[in-house]
Structures are given as C-alpha cells and as structure tokens.
Specification:
The chain is mostly beta strands. It has no helices and 11 strands.
Amino acid sequence: MQIKRAIADEWSAARNELPLYENDKVRTESGASAQVVFANGSAVHLGGDSLVGIAESKLRTDVTVLRGRVDATLEKPATQSLSVTTPSATVRAGRKIEFQ
C-alpha cells in the first residue's frame, strides 16, 4: 500500500496504523489489499489495484473511489456513517442506505 499526502507530490510506502488526513490518497498494487479504519470505527477494505481519496471529519467519513474495488463495513450502523463516492454514484450508509 502507498499513500500520497494532500500536501505532497510523491507517493510513499505506508505502514500499519499510519494516520491519514483529509484529501490523502491511498493505493494498492495489483494482487495486494489494504484496510483503512476511521476514527468512528467504520472500515474500508481496498482490493488490488485500487485508488481512493480520504475525507473525514467529526461529522462524516467519506471515501472517493477513483479506481478499483472497496468493501465498506460499519460496526455500529446506528451511530456511524460512511459515504462512498465513485465517478457515477454515491452511497451513504448508516441508519439507512441511500443511493444517489
């Protein structure tokens, strides 16, 4: 897994429990996978050859899928929310799932 900080021009190797910040990007190589866990407990699993942008605030957690496959998990849907955006759709999960 590699990350590109919002304020950086270069990709760098990621390590376990590396903090991610607003507008950072995460990518995986072909055949690799990774998991991004957010402060609210929601998690996004990235498949091989994936690229996502990260946005998180106290009120929401958002992931933009630029390439590849992601699987999202909410441990406590009643108190968590997660928005996954692709070039053609947005899915918001929490107490209810909305497709836009």
